[in-house]
Design a protein that fits this description.
- By secondary structure, the chain is an alpha+beta fold.
- It folds into three domains: 72 residues, TATA-Binding Protein (2-Layer Sandwich), CATH 3.30.310; 85 residues, Endonuclease Iii, domain 2 (Orthogonal Bundle); 116 residues, Hypothetical protein, domain 2 (Endonuclease III, domain 1), CATH 1.10.340.30.
- The protein is 48% helix and 13% strand.
- The strands form two sheets. The protein has a five-stranded antiparallel β-sheet with strand order 1-5-4-3-2, with helices on one face. Strands 6-7 form a two-stranded antiparallel ribbon.
- It is globular and about 55 Å long.
- The N and C termini lie far apart (40 Å).
């Protein structure tokens, strides 16, 4: 087992992992257990330092962690770029230290295909079921975890088998997209070179991927930080705070507004608004 300490200024591990961008990390002791690609990881935060243990990393554990948690993102600059309105100020202050994770592309795409019309808790259940049924069993610090199954592994499953994992109608879409990725018809890594509009269009050609899922994958897997996913939470935030006096605002109008108003770091603004709105709702209605 490899262990190290990583300096992590302007970073909040709990907020980052609980913000609805990734769904498989589990609380354990004073930290969290999960996987990064096929590497099992235990990480805990002590002030501005991350204590990390992992097994089988080809790179140094510190480099794996810094890359995954985007510790190189200029977070102070990003937060200073947010528009200074009341809603954004509240979200920024509440979410200090939250960073956009650099997720593996296939894992991110598959997970968000499963997320359609699901709450975060349900997405976590689906992710856990897929990992336990089709992933590899891994051990870190005596704790069992599972990596996310590759597209080839899921492509060999049946729709009925995937439905056992709680996917419902999403099973058909996940299976179809798995097969496109497994055969190379959808070359996710090669799409890195595409401009934003073309990347979004390619993603939207995949079964189960609409504008919202495409923008999530662009933001969390392709590091297109301006991408601004609009789900029911964000639509509500935008309508209440920026279009309160207008009854009819189309989804296209909301997307155009977000792209212009929140700018080059719109993905961060979106994640802060999303996490703040969801946590305030949870505190107001814990049951």
């Amino acid at each position: 087992m490899q262990s190290c300490s990583v300096r992590a200024s302007h970073f909040d591990l709990v907020k980052t992992l609980d913000s609805g961008q990734v769904f498989h990390w589990e609380k354990y002791a004073d930290g969290f257990v999960g996987t990064i690609e096929q590497v099992p990881v235990y990480v805990e935060q002590r002030g501005s330092t991350l204590k990390v243990s992992c097994n089988g990393a080809e790179q140094s554990p510190g480099r794996v962690i810094r890359q995954y948690f985007a510790l190189d993102h200029p977070l102070k600059k990003i937060c200073a770029s947010f528009p200074p309105d009341a809603a954004m100020n509240q979200a920024r202050d509440f979410c200090r230290g939250l960073r956009i994770i650099r997720q593996p592309k296939w894992e991110c795409l598959a997970t968000f295909i499963c997320s359609s019309m699901k709450q975060v808790a349900h997405i976590r259940q689906i992710s856990r079921a897929l990992r336990q049924r089709y992933g590899r069993k891994l051990i870190i610090c005596g704790i069992t975890t599972y990596d996310f199954p590759g597209a080839g592994r899921l492509a060999r499953a049946s729709e009925e088998e995937l439905r056992v994992c709680g996917l419902g109608y999403r099973a058909k879409n996940l299976l179809a997209t798995s097969r496109r990725v497994a055969t190379g018809e959808a070359h996710l890594e090669a799409w890195n070179a595409l401009p934003d509009d073309e990347l979004r269009a390619r993603l939207c050609e995949l079964p189960g991927v609409g504008a919202k899922v495409a923008n999530c994958v662009m933001l969390f897997a392709y590091e297109r930080i301006a991408a601004f996913p609009i789900d029911v939470w964000i639509e509500r935030v935008l309508r209440q705070n920026y279009f309160a006096r207008k009854r009819k605002v189309t989804p296209r109008k909301l997307a155009e507004f977000a792209a212009g108003y929140f700018g080059e770091y719109g993905g961060y603004a979106q994640q802060y608004l999303f996490h703040y709105a969801r946590l305030m709702k949870r505190r107001a209605d814990p049951y």
